[in-house]
Amino acid sequence: MQRDVSSEKTADEPGGTLDRPVLEIVDLHTHFFTEAGVIRAVDGVSYAIQAGETLGIVGESGCGKSVTALSVLRLVANPPGRIVAGTVRLDGSNLLEMSEAEMEEIRGNDISMIFQEPMTSLNPLMTVGRQIAETIALHQRVPAQAAMAKAVEMLRRVAIPEPERRVHAYPHQLSGGMRQRVMIAMALSCNPKVLIADEPTTALDVTIQAQILELMRELQQTLGTAIVLITHDMGVVAENADRVAVMYAGRKVEEASAKRLFEQPGHPYTRGLLGSIPKLDVAARLDAHRNRLNEIKGMVPPLNKLPEGCTFAPRCEFATDQCRTAYPPLVPHQPGHAIACWHADKLLAGAA
């Protein structure tokens, strides 16, 4: 089922959601202190998400998407990592000021995360059913038998065949796709207020991917769950996100509704991401005369050796001396559309 982003309301439009965000990140800085220097993995990121909303977070590997998510749950390994500044509020309460015991109550209950690598997150010495059931029993305060029955039901909901049998399997006995579905079942089992999905469908075929995304939408519609969807797949973002934040080198460089971002990208990096999407309809018409895919030349700079000025300038065809000497502020150029680029007005005019 494809989501029609063209007809959706956003917080800046009439009829949009204007309530207090369920999750709000303000000027978050997470650094890693290494022998090679300070790695600014997250360097002043802010975003907020309402109940029932899906926020897509996109960008290349190494841009700080996953570290931001781990910072929300306070799962950044210390040492070498440390949250050095900022606030993370859940329903108005600052998670960074809470005790570890308080955070244990929140993790997996109020905020759940689907991790990108299930084999590093699942316990190899416990059956998958027991791992899901323990999460349910801990947070929902139900007997072990009821928790195991709920675990079977969750495996069924994420399309794992023979869930009554698979519930007794160990992680190594399942395929990569099944392990990912187990992680999704565990994350959804306690009906969280916020679900952080870090590349939730990467290991799945397109049929199961569609089922998982539909399951996440059902949870959102019935419980008002806010979803932070971290992905490199712009197609998944277009079909599922209400708003999109684009990250580059530890910073947010653009944020807008999904409709506006795809129709009027205002940052050169966003334009590059959208330009690299294969256009199958065009390719079919051109047949033997197909053009090469567009690419963003160069690589994300090392986060301990960021260039002076705009960090994207070395890869940007629009870069000027101003770009190479001063980092542009993230400012609104249209209602609900913020961009960190000295030439955003020119790019927006060209996209109109």
Strand order of the largest sheet: 6-7-8-3-9-10-12-11
Strand count, sense and closure of the main sheet? 8 strands, mixed
Number of strands: 12
Distance between the termini: 28 Å
| Chain-averaged pLDDT | 86
Low-confidence stretches: 1-18
Beta-strand share of residues: 15-25%
Number of alpha- plus pi-helical segments: 13
Level of helix content? Answer: 25-40%
Order of helices and strands: EEEHEEHEHHHHEHEHEEHHHHEEH
Shape by Cα distribution: globular
Structure notes:
The structure is a single chain. The protein has 352 residues and is an alpha/beta fold. The chain is 34% helix and 22% strand. The strands form 2 sheets. An 8-stranded mixed beta sheet has the order 6-7-8-3-9-10-12-11, sandwiched between helices. Strand 9 (243-248) and strand 10 form a beta hairpin. The longest helix is centred in the middle third of the chain and has 18 residues, at 206-223. It is globular and about 65 Å long. The two termini are 28 Å apart. The model is unreliable at 1-18 (pLDDT under 50).
